[in-house]
Design a protein that fits this description.
By secondary structure, the protein is an all-alpha fold. The chain has one helix at residues 2-41. The relative contact order is 0.06.
Length: 61
């Protein structure tokens, strides 16, 4: 009987760990989807384009 109780506790612990990992994957997937949606909607458009090196330096004579 004692071994059965230990096995039940172990199985419950494995279920808790699996649920935690599943929740972490879901959160990461949601963050990725939010970033993708923000990128495609142009939410960061107020930041402006990144300047290239050509416009930063004067032309050589």
């Amino acid at each position: 009987m004692f071994e059965h109780e230990i096995q039940q506790q172990h199985a419950a612990e494995l279920r808790r760990v699996a649920a935690g990992e599943r929740l972490a994957r879901q959160a990461a997937k949601a963050r990725k989807a939010r970033r993708r949606a923000a990128r495609s909607s142009g939410q960061n458009a107020s930041e402006g384009p990144v300047s290239s090196l050509r416009s930063r330096f004067a032309r050589a004579a």
